[in-house]
């Protein structure tokens, strides 16, 4: 089993809380990258590229680590990509566009060996069917949670659940920003087994 420590390339408390569920020792660091889409880039390509760039941005600072990068993109039925809104007005526009629609959320996940640069990645799709939302409901929601740093303008882990009619996908954790099932798949490929590690830790306690 590898002894390389894990690093989560994120300052998000929500991703940190998700990774803690696996009972794996890890540290966090915040990457600094340009998240601007490239011309002609698909949602899947963008999500995976940003996840890889987040991991790569920390490789020099954290030699000897396996680095986890993750990023999310929302895509409307017409192919329009929804990035982080940044403010109330853009968030209002995003939720108005999502109202009554089926929106595809694409979460890119990358696991990088900081020493070799070897990277394993996956894109986890998850579809959200939104309720019909009027302007008052949208403004009420945004005033409560102010999800201006979230693709799609909602927080799945909070009141955002009130915006949805139904889900389609294998891992709702991806909506919060870290697809745990896909991550476990990647970790197991690198001989990292969360169940075994958690078991040994509990025996020591």
Automatic annotation (TrEMBL):
Q: What is its EC number?
A: 3.6.1.-
Query: Which cofactors does it use?
Result: a divalent metal cation
What GO biological process terms are annotated to this protein in UniProt? Answer: nucleotide metabolic process
Query: Which Pfam family is one of those matched by this entry?
Result: Maf
Q: Which reaction does it catalyse?
A: N(7)-methyl-GTP + H2O = N(7)-methyl-GMP + diphosphate + H(+)
Q: Per its UniProt entry, what is the enzyme's top EC class, as one word? A: hydrolase
Write down the position(s) of the site called Important for substrate specificity: 14, 72, 157
Any one Gene Ontology cellular component term annotated for this protein = cytoplasm
Catalytic residues per the record? 71 (proton acceptor)
Alphabetically list the UniProt keywords: Cytoplasm, Hydrolase, Nucleotide metabolism
* One example GO MF annotation: nucleoside triphosphate diphosphatase activity
Entry-linked InterPro entries = ITPase-like_fam, Maf-like
Q: Could you tell me where this protein is found in the cell?
A: Cytoplasm
User: Superkingdom, according to UniProt?
Assistant: Bacteria
**Which NCBIfam families does the record associate with it?**
maf
What function is annotated for this protein?
A: Nucleoside triphosphate pyrophosphatase that hydrolyzes 7-methyl-GTP (m(7)GTP). May have a dual role in cell division arrest and in preventing the incorporation of modified nucleotides into cellular nucleic acids.
Family designation:
Belongs to the Maf family. YceF subfamily.
What is this protein identified as? 7-methyl-GTP pyrophosphatase
Q: Which organism is it from?
A: Marinobacter nanhaiticus D15-8W
Q: What does the organism's lineage look like at the top?
A: Bacteria, Pseudomonadati, Pseudomonadota, Gammaproteobacteria, Pseudomonadales
């Amino acid at each position: 089993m590898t002894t390389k420590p894990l690093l989560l390339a994120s300052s998000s408390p929500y991703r940190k809380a998700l990774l803690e569920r696996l009972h794996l020792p890890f540290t966090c660091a915040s990457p600094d990258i340009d998240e601007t889409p490239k011309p002609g880039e698909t949602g899947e390509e963008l999500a995976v590229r940003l996840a890889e760039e987040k991991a790569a941005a920390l490789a020099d600072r954290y030699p000897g680590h396996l680095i986890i990068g993750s990023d999310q993109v929302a895509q409307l039925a017409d192919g329009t990509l929804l990035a982080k809104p940044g403010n109330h007005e853009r968030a209002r526009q995003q939720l108005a566009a999502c109202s009554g629609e089926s929106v595809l959320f694409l979460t890119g996940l990358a696991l990088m060996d900081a020493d070799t640069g070897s990277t394993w990645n996956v894109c986890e799709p998850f579809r959200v069917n939104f309720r019909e939302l009027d302007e008052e409901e949208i403004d009420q929601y945004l005033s409560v949670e102010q999800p201006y740093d979230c693709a799609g303008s909602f927080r799945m882990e909070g009141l955002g659940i009130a915006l949805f009619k139904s889900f389609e996908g294998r891992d709702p954790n991806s909506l919060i920003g870290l697809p745990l099932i896909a991550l476990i798949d990647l970790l197991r490929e690198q001989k990292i087994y969360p169940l075994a590690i958690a078991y040994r830790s509990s025996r020591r306690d």
